[in-house]
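Fold this sequence, please.
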Amino acid sequence: MSTTPSSPLSELDPAHAADFHANGEHYKDQLDGVMQELKDAFQDSDAVAALVTCEGAFSYLARDAGLKEAFLWPVNSDAEGTPRQIKDTIAFVQQNQVPAVFCESTVNPGAMEQVAAATGAELVTPLYVDSLSGPDGPVPSHLDLIRHDIALIKEGLAS
């Protein structure tokens, strides 16, 4: 009887089930490590603990890192950057004294540029959420994407 948990890959290739499990555990450890880096960046820190993005695609990351969150529009919204969304985001940035706002690589940063101009916050781009770069770019893998985004967030909010 196997002690390795079953997965679809293990069912397709039972001879390598232990390898799939070990690789999965290693990957989870790497993800946990990067998230801990983000959490550590805001504990006992003067950095503002609020993440402001164009699209609400970072809710889990913000929650897991203990960050307040604001965004201009929900994920894949038809109403991107309405006057009301921009006004509300400006108010959040001002009330929380957020030093940097962020925008994703796949959306037009125009509305967030307005937020940055109105508040004096730095616009930091690009965060990657649902696309990778080419093999020689900044985010050739999912783990690189998370590391890239976390590094930008830490740097931007520490200013």
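The mean pLDDT is 88. The radius of gyration is 19 Å.
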